[in-house]
Amino acid sequence: MFHIFFDGKLIGRSALEEGDPAMGCAEGRFMPCEGFSEFLARVSPEQDNDPALKRWVGLTVFDHEGAQIECLDVVLFACEFDGERDLWVDALGIGFPLYEELFPGRYATYATRVDQIKDETH
Prior knowledge:
The chain is α+β, with helices and mostly antiparallel strands. The chain is built from 3 helices and 9 strands, in the order E-E-E-E-E-H-E-E-E-E-H-H. A 5-stranded antiparallel sheet has the order 3-4-9-8-6, with no helix packed on it. A hairpin with a 4-residue loop joins strand 3 (18-20) and strand 4. The radius of gyration is 16 Å and the shape is globular. The mean pLDDT is 90.
């Protein structure tokens, strides 16, 4: 489980269960913790054309051992639809070989999918 921080305070966790290895992106469902309510009260989301979508940038992500993961940015998204809120987080620009160390096998799975698509289109 990865830990998501804002301004040095833990606001939630995520398994970062999905991703795009070629882009160095890892994303997953965001599970808020105690500090999340304070975060929402203090930090305004970026403006977006879609009022149902909220986005916060400038977060940090740490692994289960407490080491910060170097990446370009960590973005939290909230989408509200029919009274339900869906939260997810995206760590952007995680370099290689760190990406493979954090998410073993994702590059191989991605390469296999790319090869399958190439075969289907030829």
